[in-house]
Amino acid sequence: MNTFIALLHSIVLTPDRRVIMEDLRALAKELGYREPRTLVSTGNLVFEADEMRPHELEVALEEGFEEKFGKHVDIIVRSDCTWMALCSTNPFRDGSGDQVIVRVMRLPVDPEKVEALKPLMTEGQRIAIVGGDLWIDFAGKPSQSKLLSALTTKRIGIGTMRNWNTVCGLAQMIM
């Protein structure tokens, strides 16, 4: 039995309908995963499953999600070991937990694409690639940064963002 973390790119189905976490936990149970639990209402799922590759779980969750909710959503899955490794690599531990963001990537982010983001950065912002994931210290509210709107799937690849507080919260759930 292994523990996995699934991160949904979006829980918005339509402008006036979002997936509630109870429905996400129910989907995980329907797919045969055990002990599904969620953290905050933004698409963070922790569950137990037989030994499988994360990509196999991504496919199963994405297909199940689309069948149940009628919309495709990218889902990134990490094992408990790789999640804890991600936690240990935060290059901006001195930043504020709600301003340091990691874009957890399905495939390693292309350094050239990250380099193209640098002109959008403002004073105090920092950016780093660690283990294929993109770390950003927004040094202020991410929503007020031009950089945030550039972090799209089309521009840098399939991934989803979580702030450091959420990353740590998920780590506590699997310890």
UniProtKB/TrEMBL annotation:
Cross-referenced Pfam families: DUF1697
Protein name, per record: DUF1697 domain-containing protein
Signal sequence region: none
Transmembrane annotation, as ranges: none
Organism name: Rhizobium phaseoli
Top-level lineage group: Bacteria
